[in-house]
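Posting this for the archive.
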Amino acid sequence: MNETYLFSIKQWAAATAQSCSAASMRCMMRTLYLLMSLAAGVALAVALAVAPAYAEAPAEPVSAMAATTLDKVNINTANAQTLEEKLVGIGEARAGDIVRYREIYGLFVSADELAEVKGIGQSTVDRNRDVITLE
């Protein structure tokens, strides 16, 4: 903050405090509140003036086709590591459980069947529905 502003704020606060009687706590609190509001306003003005210098260029949009092709995961063929990387809320242990379930019961016939795997609920299936494929 500019020293000129600091000096002016200090002078204003001192003058206002002196004009309040010692017994007038309300006057002192009002002065403190106004001073804090003024300081916050100056800090906000500085932040807004500096912010554009740090703004990043907008990211290039990814085509819908590229995004869907890259993000899909076939739960019938993916290994545990791929399942862990591609599915939200699926860690190493759950990814292994999916592979074991598939080995025991065969291929999944729907994405909803994934909720049959111990530790995977319907909400996890719903969060991942857009990336799950069976083909």
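The two ends are 62 Å apart (CA to CA). The CA atoms of residues 111 and 132 lie 7 Å apart.
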